[in-house]
Design a protein that fits this description.
166 residues
């Protein structure tokens, strides 16, 4: 019995020693890897830094006022005489669903117009408030869409649709 117990202890100790030995080997491998990596990093200089996906270009203000429709007369005429077509075209150019503005027909405050204006302010880094966005979207809907369209042209930022979820 004592002999069997002694063999079990030896077996247990051998197992523990081998696991400690492999842990030490992993640590020494890890430390040599870290030293090697540090040596490489010290000898190489990074020239190109990663760039952000969307950079606010230009001013932090709108490029044109809400009533500057004469800046682009054909666009202004299209917005007033064929508003829904113009809003859908602008939404599509912004990278959203073509028919999204049609949802504005069902509410007092046009939620899509307001959402698009807020989104555009955030994307381009334009200062403003939700209250102002709501006021413009409700009282000056065609002018708001014209202003957003002019801003997209002015900023001339290519829109890339990425539907991947991280």
């Amino acid at each position: 019995m004592a002999e069997a117990l002694n063999l079990m202890n030896i077996s247990y100790l051998t197992e523990k020693c081998s696991s400690v030995s492999s842990a030490v080997t992993r640590r020494s491998t890890r430390s040599s890897f870290i030293k090697h990596t540090e040596a490489i990093m010290a000898s190489k200089m990074v020239i190109n830094q990663p760039q952000p996906v969307m950079v606010a270009q230009g001013s932090d203000e709108w490029g044109s006022g809400i009533c500057d429709c004469c800046d682009d007369v054909p666009e202004c005429c299209c917005a007033f005489w064929c508003f829904w077509c113009f809003a859908c075209k602008t939404t599509k150019s912004y990278g959203q669903c073509l028919c999204l503005p049609l949802l504005d027909m069902f509410g007092g405050i046009p939620p899509i117009t307001m959402s698009m204006r807020v989104s555009m302010r955030q994307r381009y880094g334009i200062k403003g408030t939700m209250c102002k966005d709501c006021l413009y979207a409700t009282c000056c809907t065609p002018c708001t869409w014209c202003q957003m369209s002019r801003e997209m042209k002015r900023r001339n930022i290519q829109i890339v649709l990425d539907d991947s979820r991280e």
